[in-house]
Amino acid sequence: MNESTFPGTQHLSSSTEPMSSTPDPAPATPPVTPAQVPAPVPARTVTPPSNYAEMPRPTAKLTAEDMHPVNDANGARGKIGPTGRPLPDLPDVLPPTRRGPAQVIAMCNQKGGVGKTTTTINLGAAIAETGRKVLLIDFDPQGSASIGLGVQPHDLEISVYNLLMQRDITPDEVIQATKVPNLDLLPANIDLSAAEVQLVQEVAREYTLSRVLEPIIPLYDVILIDCAPSLGLLTVNALTASNGIVVPLECEFFALRGLAMLTDTIGKVQDRLNPKLEIVGILGTMFDGRTTHAREVLDRVVQAFDERVFHTVIRRTVKFPETTVVGEPITTYAPSSSAATQYRDLAKEVLARCPAG
Fold first, then answer.
1. pTM recorded for the entire structure
2. Are 242 and 105 in contact (CB under 8 A)?
3. Read out DSSP for 210-273?
4. How many CB atoms lie within 10 A of CB 262?
5. Do strands 244-250 and 183-186 pair parallel, antiparallel, or not at all (unpaired)?
6. 210 closest CA partner among 305, 157, 293, 274
7. Alpha-carbon torsion 54, 55, 60, 65, what sign?
8. Which of 107, 186, 209, 224 could staple 237 via S-S, CB 3.0–4.6 A?
9. Per residue in 31-88, pLDDT tens?
10. Which stretches does DSSP call E strand in 45-202?
């Protein structure tokens, strides 16, 4: 995508000669012919800049009329979405014809409070609605994903920590079914924080999670890992065990700055541990289209990462805190809400980008 895709913008040619206060005499050379017109500027690459603060100002001018879900009742209708690109008409997701092997996707961002856990829970529930068997792994010692699905971490006798550190524990002993059909949970609690220290002494410590997931890969269609807000050993384990990454990104400047550090870590994992790892997409979260700042941040991400940015954008709503209290996803708590629609749209995009899922 380049700037010409934005409505109302065109590339205008300009002279490179300096302006003078006195009129110039008639040109001594003949007028420029079409053959002498400079070649068009090559398409912009998708290399993220090192300093997002120096990126160009946004070119998309959005109005409230443009802020529609990716798939509303009347279709995309060729409108420009919050990302400044035409909204696609996403096809309906067909039920799976077979079970597994699972597409393993890590929900990763070292900055906290960007919507990782909310996205993991609701994306998993939305994918489960399509008939796919989904496993949600809570890989954060805070146990937020477990709480969001109605499991109290302090009541757990065994958790993902025991699965990682004890050879005699099998996944079947730890995995719990949730109230959502086709959605299972591998819960966590504060014990997982000890694994960060204990794994340092292990041989091939980066592959510990990959090892314990190997026997259950054929049993699921999609496995989502809710990573801790850090780039420590637990997160590296999650990236090593995954073949895809979804990056939830709050539409706020501090979250934008941390994206460069995250992409650097992803590159190191790709080079040294897991060459199959790919970025599935970057997801704008907590978006408020009424503020110029949110639109600027989202537009800068699109300029840097282009089609890696999902068309779906998750907007702010009071419904998400309510779902945490009741311990269920938005798709069952408020199934007809715009927030539920956004996560169903996101599920369509994720499955479209991950055919194995």
1. 0.76
2. yes
3. HHHHGGGGGG-SEEEEEE-SS-SHHHHHHHHH-SEEEEEEESSHHHHHTHHHHHHHHHHHHHHT
4. 20
5. unpaired
6. 274
7. negative
8. 209
9. 544 445 445 544 444 444 444 434 333 333 333 333 344 444 444 445 787 887 888 8
10. 103-107, 134-139, 176-177, 183-186
